[in-house]
C-alpha cells in the first residue's frame, strides 16, 4: 500500500473510471480509500417528525485501492510508485519521471 492521504488519484476501472480526486481517508488495512468526489451515494432520509423536510444525504463511500492509480504531481500521469532509500529515509518516487512524491 503506497497511497496516502492527500494523494491525487484517478479511478482506473468501474463505472467511475477516469474520475480524479484527492484521497481523504485511507483504510487502516490499506484495502480501500475514500476519494473526494468519487463513489458518492445519495441517501434519502424521510422526515421523522411532521413539518420536517426529507433530506438527501451524500455519503462518500470507500473504493478498492486497487482500482485507483496514483497521479504524479510532477508529470501529471497515472503512474506506478516505487521506493528508494535516501539517507535512511524511504521516499516514494514516480516510476515514470523519477520525481519524489
Ligand atoms: Zn512523474
TrEMBL record:
Keyword Ribosomal protein carried by entry: yes
UniProt xrefs under Pfam families: KOW (PF00467), ribosomal_L24 (PF17136)
SMART domains in the record: KOW (SM00739)
Entry keyword set: Ribonucleoprotein, Ribosomal protein, RNA-binding, rRNA-binding
GO process terms (BP): translation
InterPro entries attached to this UniProt entry: KOW, Rib_uL2_dom2, Ribosomal_uL24, Ribosomal_uL24_C, Ribosomal_uL24_CS, Ribosomal_uL24_KOW, Translation_prot_SH3-like_sf
GO cellular component: ribonucleoprotein complex; ribosome
Signal sequence, start to end: none
Keyword rRNA-binding: yes
CDD domains: KOW_RPL26 (cd06089)
GO MF entry, a single one: structural constituent of ribosome
Domain KOW: residue ranges: 2-29
Role description: One of the proteins that surrounds the polypeptide exit tunnel on the outside of the subunit. One of two assembly initiator proteins, it binds directly to the 5'-end of the 23S rRNA, where it nucleates assembly of the 50S subunit.
Subunit structure: Part of the 50S ribosomal subunit.
NCBIfam families in the cross-refs: rplX_bact
The family this protein is said to belong to: Belongs to the universal ribosomal protein uL24 family.
Protein name as catalogued: Large ribosomal subunit protein uL24
Gene that specifies this protein: rplX
Amino acid at each position: 500500500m503506497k497511497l496516502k492521504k492527500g494523494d491525487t488519484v484517478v479511478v482506473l476501472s468501474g463505472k467511475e473510471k477516469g474520475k480524479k480526486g484527492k484521497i481523504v481517508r485511507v483504510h487502516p488495512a490499506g484495502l480501500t480509500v475514500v476519494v473526494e468526489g468519487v463513489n458518492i451515494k445519495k441517501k434519502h432520509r424521510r422526515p421523522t417528525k411532521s413539518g420536517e423536510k426529507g433530506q438527501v444525504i451524500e455519503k462518500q463511500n470507500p473504493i478498492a485501492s486497487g482500482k485507483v492509480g496514483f497521479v504524479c504531481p510532477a508529470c501529471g500521469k497515472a503512474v506506478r510508485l516505487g521506493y528508494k532509500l535516501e539517507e535512511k529515509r524511504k521516499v516514494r518516487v514516480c516510476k515514470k519521471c523519477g520525481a519524489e512524491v
